Amino acid sequence: MFSNKLVYAIIGILIFLTVSAFIMGRPSHRDKRIYPIVRQYTPFVIENGLGGLKIKRKDNPSFKEEPDAVNFYHRLNELEKDWAKTHLRVTNNTLEILDNNGTVLKIVKLKNQNEKKFIKNYYGVDIK
Q1: Is residue 57 within 8 Å of 43, Cβ to Cβ?
Q2: pTM
Q3: Contact predicate 122/73, CB 8 Å
Q4: Which of 103, 98, 68 lies closest to 84, judged by CA?
Q5: Which of 62, 54, 42 minimizes the C-alpha distance to 122?
Q6: Which residues, 6 or more positions from 58, have their beta carbon under 8 angstroms from its beta carbon?
Q7: Which residue among 42, 92, 107, 126 has the highest number of C-beta atoms inside a 10 angstrom radius?
């Protein structure tokens, strides 16, 4: 009933859609030294549930988002950027992590230009 060409076309389309969804859903590059340090102070927690990954806040138990798999890391990045606008500050070669009141919680010395570039690109923080 079905020709071989139709079966191969359907298989090809499924493979193409799978690969493109995988590429779109990949998280952006994260610096191996800076990201874990900043991650300790961000209020966002990733939880694994039956329906997939969930984003929750440590300081707000009613906050819960369940983006689909393709948009999960993009949404997490948006939330971290919004948080970083008021909680991260870079001056010279130091990164300051601030609390909600503007008090410095941690100071991290930036070692190279790649770390500065990561902070600017990933968190959207202006470097002074």
Answers
A1: yes
A2: 0.79
A3: no
A4: 98
A5: 42
A6: 43, 44, 45
A7: 42
